[in-house]
Structure to design on (449 residues):
């Protein structure tokens, strides 16, 4: 009877899982004109939108995020004043680079060079910083960039220069850039600079004050088409090979997202006859969709039965229910709850049976939490009740285990071999005694004669 009840309960669970409603995945909810788009939650790492996130592509000036990280982490005093070399300026001749109007021989602090590089996207500032941090060797600095990316786990990234101008072998991916940028956001001075709309560069020995205007129009209220009030930085980039690129962070109502757009076109979107920078528009669209449609929701809890497995060595119960170890929350579309997801047991991590005793809350297996055919989380499965062991069955099981174990078999075989050798040696010894007695009798008989 208990076996029948167990089978019926399992059947009910399977039927319920088949009728769970399905919805469109996050990717199908968004469309983008950009070749590459990536949106990730900075709160729990959930990937919200992914279009070609692992495709290698030219990053343009997004490269400067790495240059900034290495500068900040390898310069003890950002107020250190350095003198711009002529060679640094000459390295950019003929490149039609974005610059801040810096001059050879100009004395400027490392911090102000960071403002030039991150706010104005000045290429000469990137070269000057690379030369300084690299000890006068820009190639050595580029080596530091690649070492940093590798240590961060960026498997599809390789740099050839510190500024991002197109070059063979200079590439990265949106997913790798997310790792890099999340690291950069742990540096307070970085987050302060990249969220600056305008900056007044103090007068130097070569120039009076200069005003730097951010290339990121998503944070500038004057650019109404692109401005997004919840955006914070971070960096833009544009080359013929990279197209239009932007990385930005947005925060609202306790939710934080990182958006990355690469190789977006420039085209007339609003019909006013002027081409629009689609990198800004697409990033803004991703942020708005996430804030409007996603909520952190409880999607699983210990009241849900994931599966039922057999229990051996108990007379009171022949099965145990497995439930989620704890409440699980995830970013899912508004209106989603625990009835909209499916708990999918992971067979290779969940046994088909357990031996009593079983303690309530004991971790036994693991399950995937599926929404719209996508894995959105995993959770440990635990026993929903205590199950006591039957002493008699336990003893019989122990005996069976002992007699069927490899160790016992090896010992038994060795014992048989030893016993055989012993018996053989006893027989041989007895045979030898008999021969000796027989020989002695014959000798005695001959002596009598």
């Amino acid at each position: 009877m208990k076996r029948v009840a167990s089978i019926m309960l399992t059947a009910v669970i399977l039927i319920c899982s088949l009728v769970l409603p399905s919805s469109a995945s996050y990717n199908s909810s968004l469309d983008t004109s950009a070749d590459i788009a990536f949106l990730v939650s900075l709160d729990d790492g959930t990937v919200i939108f992914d279009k070609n996130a692992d495709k290698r592509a030219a990053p343009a000036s997004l490269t400067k995020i790495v240059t900034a990280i290495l500068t900040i982490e390898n310069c003890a005093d950002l107020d250190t004043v350095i003198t711009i070399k002529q060679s640094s300026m000459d390295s950019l001749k003929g490149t039609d680079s974005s610059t801040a109007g810096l001059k050879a021989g100009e004395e400027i602090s490392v911090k102000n060079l960071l403002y030039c590089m991150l706010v104005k996207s000045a290429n000469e500032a990137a070269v000057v910083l690379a030369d300084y941090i690299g000890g006068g060797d820009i190639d050595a600095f580029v080596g530091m960039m690649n070492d940093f990316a590798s240590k961060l786990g960026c498997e599809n990234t390789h740099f050839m220069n510190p500024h991002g101008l197109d070059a063979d072998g200079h590439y990265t991916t949106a997913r790798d850039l997310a790792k890099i940028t999340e690291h950069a956001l742990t540096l307070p001075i970085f987050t302060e600079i990249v969220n600056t709309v305008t900056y007044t560069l103090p007068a130097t020995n070569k120039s009076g004050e200069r005003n730097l205007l951010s290339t990121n129009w998503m944070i500038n209220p004057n650019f109404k088409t692109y401005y997004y009030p919840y955006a914070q930085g971070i960096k833009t980039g544009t080359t013929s090979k990279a197209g239009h690129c932007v990385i930005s962070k947005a925060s609202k109502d306790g939710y934080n997202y990182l958006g990355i757009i690469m190789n977006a076109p420039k085209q007339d979107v609003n019909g006013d006859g002027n081409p629009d920078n689609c990198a800004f528009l697409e990033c803004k669209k991703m942020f708005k969709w996430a804030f409007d449609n996603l909520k952190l929701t409880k999607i699983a809890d210990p009241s849900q039965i994931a599966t039922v497995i057999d229990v051996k060595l108990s007379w009171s119960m022949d099965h145990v229910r497995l439930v989620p170890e704890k409440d699980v929350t995830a970013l899912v579309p508004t209106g989603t709850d625990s009835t909209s997801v499916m708990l999918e047991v992971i067979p290779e991590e969940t046994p088909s049976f357990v031996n009593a005793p079983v303690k309530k809350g004991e971790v036994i297996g693991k399950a995937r939490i599926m929404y719209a055919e996508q894995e959105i989380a995993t959770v440990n499965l635990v026993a929903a009740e205590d199950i006591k062991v039957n002493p008699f069955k336990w003893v019989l099981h122990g005996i069976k285990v002992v007699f069927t174990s490899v160790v016992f078999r090896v010992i038994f075989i060795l014992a048989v071999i030893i016993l055989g050798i012993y018996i053989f040696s006893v027989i041989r010894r007895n045979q030898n005694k008999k021969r000796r007695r027989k020989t002695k009798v014959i000798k005695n008989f001959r002596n009598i004669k």
